[in-house]
Amino acid sequence: MTQDAKFLIKTAKHASKLISKKIEVKQKDDKGDLVTNFDYEIEKFIIDKIKKNYLDFSIVSEEFNCDKTLSKNCFTIDPIDGTVNFANKIPLWAIQIACVRDGKTCASVIFLPKLKELYYADTTGAYLNGKKLNIKKKNLINCLFEIDTGDIKKTLETVDNVSNTVKKFRNLGSAGIAYAWTASGKLGGTIFQSESAWDYTPGMFLVKMAGGITINKKGCHLASCSKEFATILEKSCVTKNLNKNLLKTSKKSY
Fold it and tell me: Are residues 62 and 148 in the same domain?
């Protein structure tokens, strides 16, 4: 395990201990998005830890640095990925952080405290509670897929476009969990259609290091156990940004 991975794991575990029963929920915007006191407290805690240990790194995070973009050396932070679930006492939420060095993601952690699942990845591979993950190809007809577009209409359009082959869909309300469960084989894949780097950076790296297919295009961040699913996505024209090079597994780190 690399030092960066050790730092992320320790920080995520400590951050989770800040959560108590006193949850304060507020409306974040007029679109129904929510934020809690723990989104702010956990993010501040993680930022403080990073600043003490990584002096020359910038930070891209949901609550305090959402206007920042990925840089050569930076961290991404989503203090509670799945805030709506968290606010409604649904255990599908995660603390997720990624470390980017020299323009490449080198470590990430996705911690699901309520489910006692700690996923992390570094240059040695991807792991769940210390056990190495290796994605295996599956028959798509038997797989469950996750689609997160942030918009009900777009989600329904996406489902309609791929439903001839892929039959089972969910929207878990947490991109981090969708990527983590793809890496561990619970899901056949996930489509995330948003440009918030803190949502997709940790998970894309986790799936990549677990041996999965990752495609990172503006408007579509896809991870899967199967190239076949990528083929279906391309043919369905889910997003105008996908092109003839879609099937090539990206060589970039996320």
Answer: no
